Each structure stands twice: as C-alpha cells, then as structure tokens.
Amino acid sequence: MADLLDSIRAELRARLDELRPVVREYGRLQDAETALGDGPPTHGRRAGPSKRGGSQARRGGAGRAGGRRSSSSSAGRAANRERVLALVRERPGVTRAELRDAAGLSSAGVAQNLRRMLDRGEVREEALPGGATGYRTGDGRTAPAASDRAAESGQ
C-alpha cells in the first residue's frame, strides 16, 4: 500500500512539474491581454490560487481612488519605469508581486516595465528558493546606502 501511495505522489509531482511553466505562461498572457486592453481579461480569472490572499476586485484597483493605478502619459510611464528600476536596485531579488505592491502599479504595468528592462539589459531574472523569480539590476548595481546619498548631496 505504501508503494502505491509513493507511486501516486511521484506521478503527481511529475505532472505538477510538467504543468508549472504552462501556468506561468498563462499568467503572462493574461497580463499582456490586460496591458493591451482597457480593463481585466474577458476570459475568466487567473489559473491557480491567489498568492496574495486578496479579492479579485483588488487586482483591478477598484478600491483605489480613480480606479487605475498608473498614468498613460509619457511622463507617467517614465516615472513608473524609474520607480520600478529604483525598487529593483534597492531590493535585489525582488519579485513581481513585491514590485506591484511597492510601486502601486498593476500587474500588467510591472510586467511591461520588466519586459522592456530585460530586453535592454537593465535588469536580469534570477531563480529564488521555492521556484519564484526575482529581479536585480543587469549591471550588478544596487541603490547607494543612505550615508552615500547624503555624502553625494553634500549634507
């Protein structure tokens, strides 16, 4: 009986390992659909359990003033990009979810900024324990310490 259970567990683990990349791709495709359209995807909710523990309404920013999280102006996009890049410098290994929460951007906004930064070599992906993906600057730089910033500004 123990052999049967071990066999079933092994099959389940193998199947989970096989499907994990597909689930990630599904999430990226939903983020892309959201970024291209005006509003949440029209084909159901994201696969898998929510890692945030929040409601689906929170994902779209409905609880925030104004509804949308980021600006669509060129200056707003540049500010969002700088905010994401600064967070990556300050927190090497930061995840997309952490960037989303810290920057106050939508998942699609974070995904779009990261994709462009990855293409430009400004940031790079790294595997984190537990299978998560983290991001750090492509040049290995991190944010200067507070004492370094004060010295640079002459304080």
Tell me what the structure shows.
The chain has helices at residues 2-36, 56-59, 74-90, 96-103, 107-120, 146-152, and strands at 123-127, 133-137. The protein folds into 2 domains: 1-38; 60-155, Arc Repressor Mutant, subunit A (Orthogonal Bundle). The protein has 155 residues and is mostly helical. The termini are far apart.
Order of helices and strands: HHHHHEEH
Lateral arrangement of strands in the main beta sheet: 1-2
Overall tally of structural domains: 2
Specify the overall morphology: elongated
Proper CATH architecture of the largest domain:
Orthogonal Bundle
Work out the radius of gyration: 19 Å
Task: Please identify the structural class as seen in this structure.
Answer: mainly alpha
| Number of helices, counting only DSSP H or I runs of 4 residues or more | 6
Q: What summary fits the major beta sheet? A: 2 strands, antiparallel
Topology, number of strands: 2
For this structure, what is the CATH homologous superfamily of the largest domain? Winged helix-like DNA-binding domain superfamily/Winged helix DNA-binding domain
Model regions low in confidence, pLDDT < 50 over at least 5 residues: 45-70, 143-150
* Cα-to-Cα separation, first versus last residue: 72 Å
Strand content: 5-15%
**How much helical structure, as a percent, in the residues?**
40-55%
Overall pLDDT, averaged? 75
The top level CATH class name of the largest domain: Mainly Alpha
CATH topology of the largest domain: Arc Repressor Mutant, subunit A
